[in-house]
Amino acid sequence: DTAVSQTPKYLVTQMGNDKSIKCEQNLGHDTMYWYKQDSKKFLKIMFSYNNKELIINETVPNRFSPKSPDKAHLNLHINSLELGDSAVYFCASSPSLGSSNTEAFFGQGTRLTVV
Amino acid sequence: AQTVTQSQPEMSVQEAETVTLSCTYDTSESNYYLFWYKQPPSRQMILVIRQEAYKQQNATENRFSVNFQKAAKSFSLKISDSQLGDTAMYFCAFRPSWGKLQFGAGTQVVVTP
User: Fold this and answer.
1) Does residue A109 sit at the B interface (CB-CB below 8 Å)?
2) Chain A residue with Cα closest to B54
């Protein structure tokens, strides 16, 4: 059973399009994240939700909009895609903030290529 | 603000040898957690080892061990008896009790036959 599942794994799209990446976790975790990994492999947090509430919103263009319909799902919608959005996007989840069990589990990543 | 620094972009090691990856971090928090994650070419992020800051004993997981120096804010990873399957990008990560998980820039480890 996959703990954190992202779809799609690969996404190639043209500039200006709108696309979504879906993420689901079956670990019963309260906290979910989106990370962006650039071409130099640097991982930067974008958003974090705890029990469906946004708790971390880094300096990300407002073309990026996360949505958490329930605590097991955190989707990422991107409007008006730009070349610079090309990257690997990782979804992750972890138990509640403040929990002593703080390991984050990651999805397999979505490689987004904007052409 | 917290930062995580990995000063070694790439390390090469022969099979069966030992390699040590360095990581330093900066924080004013007293309670936090430190991690090493491995990212092989498959790009899956895999937790290698975890250390709680309140524990003095260094964590060990099979061939992987850490040297945690809290006063120096240092958290190095030692890989013993290196195997070809250890070839991957290794990320040091820091998380305060009530904050976000932040990563260093990564160290690419290449294990050669």
Assistant:
1) yes
2) A100
* Chain-chain contact of B44 with A100 (C-beta, under 8 angstroms): no
Q: In angstroms, rounded to a whole number, what is the distance separating the alpha carbons of residues A89 and A91?
A: 7
Name the residue facing B97 among A41, A92, A98 (closest C-beta): A98
In DSSP terms, B76 is beta-bridged to B67
Residue B42, both tokens: 């498959």
**From edge to edge, which strands make up the β-sheet containing A4-7?**
A4-7, A19-25, A73-78, A64-70
Residue B100: per-residue pLDDT? 83
Measured in residues, chain B has a length of 113
Segment A67-112, tens digit of pLDDT? 999 989 999 999 999 999 999 999 999 887 666 667 889 999 999 9
- How far is residue B45's CA from residue A83's CA, in Å, rounded to a whole number? 25
Handedness of CA B13, A35, A55, A93 (dihedral sign): negative
Show the 3-state SS of chain B.
CCEEECCCCEEEEECCCCEEECCEEECCCCCEEEEEEEECCCCCCEEEEEEECCCCCCCEECCEEEEEECCCCEEEEEECCCCHHHCEEEEEEEEECCCCCEECCCEEEEEEC
Report percent pLDDT > 90 for chain A: 75
